[in-house]
Amino acid sequence: MRPPTNTRAGTTKQECRTTDTQRSTDTIWRAFYTRPRHERKAAARLEEAGIEVYCPTVTTKVRWSDRWKKVTKVLFTSYVFARVDEKQRITVLEDEGISRCVLYLGKPATIRDEEIEAIRFLLDAGTDVTVH
Questions:
Q1: DSSP string, 73-87
Q2: Under a CB-based contact definition with an 8 Å cutoff, are residues 73 and 57 in contact?
Q3: Labelling 123: which of 57, 72, 80, 101 has CA 20 to 30 A away?
């Protein structure tokens, strides 16, 4: 996991991901639903299994009743992205924190590399991102 970097308005961002230098041409980015609040745990287990995972997070200041606190939140709640082939997709689905693969028209949805890079670019550029 990369260390947080400073951005505007007291917000920092970080992301949990691995970078695989030997990307196979048959691997595709896929989105997976996770159990509630299991995004980071599932991503960590998948990284340990050698799967390239992307779980974007942002750190924001939150007002508690008695103080301000920095809290790291997952940008897309209940989702993680993984670059997998079909065999690895089955491995991901066997993880206890993953509930199912996101489907589009009855088939596992594919996510273009450009879309993942656009998310990374927005977070790296320091764009203000609100997590709901």
A1: EESSTTEEEEEE-HH
A2: yes
A3: 101
- At position 131, the amino acid (one-letter code) is V
Contact 58, 5 (CB under 8 A): no
Tell me the per-residue pLDDT of 82-117, one tens digit each, with 9 for 90 and over: 999 999 999 999 999 999 999 999 999 999 999 999
- At the topology level of CATH, where does 5-123 sit? Alpha-Beta Plaits (3.30.70)
- φ, ψ for residue 119, nearest 5 deg: -65, -45
Q: Tell me the one-letter amino acid at 22.
A: Q
